[in-house]
Amino acid sequence: MAPFTSWALSLTAVSAAVCTSSATATLPAKDTLAKDDVCATEGNCALHALQARSAKGQLQQQQQQEQEQQQDKEQEQEEMKEKKQKADDEAAEEDTYVWTHEQASKQLGATEYSEEQWSDMYHELGGMVNEQCPHYVAYFWPKLSFFSQEVIRRVEYLPEDMDEATQKDLQHFTRDMAYLACTWSLDPRKDNPVPGFANVTGEYMKMIRLQPDSSLDTPLLPNGLAQNTSKLMTTDACLFWTSSLFCDLGYMARDYQGDVHDEQPEDLCWSTIKMPPYGFTLFGMSLMDGMPKMTADQVGQEFSRPEYLKCQEKGLDEQEVRNICPISGHYPAGMFGLDWGVPPPVGSERRKQVNTCNKKLGNPDFTGLTSAQVHVANEGDDIDLLKPYVGPLLNATEGMERRQYFESLPREEAEKLMKQQQEQVVKALASAMGGKQNIDITQIVHMAFEQR
Question: Is the pTM here over 0.85, yes or no?
Answer without folding.
Answer: no
